[in-house]
Amino acid sequence: MATLSIGKAWEEAVAFVAREAALLLPVALLFVALPIVLLQEMTPPELVQWSATMKGTMPAVPPSYWLSLTLAILLIWFGSLTLFALALRPGISVAEALRLALHRLPVLIGTSVLAGLLLFVIVILVSAPLILLGGNTGAVIAMVGVGLFVGTRLALLNPVVIDDHLGVLASLRRAWALTKGGFWRLLGFIAIVLVVSTIAGSAAQAVFGVIGGLVAGVDGARLAGGIAAAGVSGVVQVYMLVMLARLYRQAAD
């Protein structure tokens, strides 16, 4: 695999987004930001409270919430494939990118399900001995470590799915092979994006939450803050996905 250059990918991503923002941002806002906002509004308050502490038993959640969560994930995956199509195929129209994303979405679903099952088995095999020995902390660290490793090695899965005409297993093998030798660069890149996204999203949520609270009270603060955070997340996602597309091109070449 070619040596990955994060700096080169960033320069190319900034130039591409500046040139094609009119195509990229509406897709990101519609298929990334909007599903996040709608899901936040549909999340039961007791689940939000439990998620903040993770203490006790998870409260009962209506089936409609899980259905909404599934639909939101599918929309976000569909949006990400569309963005990758726009980033990897210069000159493609948004309509063509949407059709291509819809055509390749079943492959992405299949790879995600299979990778999730394999990850679950690996986590059980790694953490079970530690739990039996009474090392719950060690088991948690092991699970996080395995998740980070597998997630990083499959970081180029989406561009592989949208750019190649491969099936589920072949896409997984291709994505895994492309990240060989570039694990630490990809891990550092993903970590930086997560930190930047978290800080920017939290700041936007706080500022617009205050404004919304002054206008419409507690509910307005929650809604305005959620919309602002989701919007910032959508913009960050655009840069992240375009950078991953450029890194994929580097690795594939």
From TrEMBL:
Swiss-Prot/TrEMBL keywords: Membrane, Transmembrane, Transmembrane helix
Tagged with keyword Transmembrane: yes
Biological classification of the source: Bacteria, Pseudomonadati, Pseudomonadota, Alphaproteobacteria, Sphingomonadales
Membrane-crossing residue ranges in chain numbering: 21-39, 65-86, 107-133, 139-162, 183-211, 223-248
Protein name: Glycerophosphoryl diester phosphodiesterase membrane domain-containing protein
